[in-house]
Design brief:
The complex is a heterodimer of chains A (111) and B (116). Chain A is mostly beta strands and 111 residues long. Helices cover 0% and strands 54% of the residues of chain A. Chain A has strands at residues 4-7, 10-13, 19-25, 31-37, 43-49, 56-57, 64-70, 73-78, 86-94, 101-102, 106-110. The model of chain A has no long low-confidence stretch (mean pLDDT 95). Chain B is built from no helices and twelve strands. In chain B, strands 2, 5, 6, 10, 11 and 12 form a six-stranded mixed β-sheet that branches. In chain B, strands 3-9-8-7 form a four-stranded antiparallel β-sheet, with no helix packed on it. In chain B, strands 1-4 form a two-stranded antiparallel ribbon. The mean pLDDT of chain B is 94. The chains are: A mainly beta (111), B mainly beta (116).
Amino acid sequence: GGIITQTPKFLIGQEGQKLTLKCQQNFNHDTMYWYRQDSGKGLRLIYYSITENDLQKGDLSEGYDASREKKSSFSLTVTSAQKNEMAVFLCASRRLNQAPLFGEGTRLSVL
Amino acid sequence: AQKVTQTQTSISVVEKTTVTMDCVYETRDSSYFLFWYKQTASGEIVFLIRQDSYKKENATVGHYSLNFQKPKSSIGLIITATQIEDSAVYFCAMREVTEGADRLTFGKGTQLIIQP
């Protein structure tokens, strides 16, 4: 079986700081996604990638950059952390028409 | 406009009964994929069941089944013989594949509380 690993699990940043979140999968999945989940709310799509070096904007891409340099990894950068921001960032991946599978998330707090 | 809508914010039922969670979606695609996920108290998101739009038969996996009504753009999740462990937040999601895009959009979720 495979696994989707998100690092770090917890991230504390300062206002204005650039922060990078990483996601690795060993399923050999083609498509990968980044979602943001605010407390008690649904998942909003930030970026996705259908193959290595491909990037597609989601509904919430402003304030974020993404990178897919290898098929197995997809990173997300918060370009300037907002004060008091708290959210969970979730990575998912999918092969062909299978159901996307999720990592455990990175919990972000900004002081 | 929301593409995937779950109108029930929270549902509470007694253990061992059947519960139905609603989900409606909007799409112009003739072919699309619908999924239900469960998010546990720890935050883990688990895939439960899927319905491909071209399939007429409702999907069933264990004690989960779907009520797919394509003309109404509706995909309800039915859980029979509910257990305490089914308490979680349930998300409906739709994957649309259009020219140049392949998006997976989620509803806002329904919290299910199973009482003893």
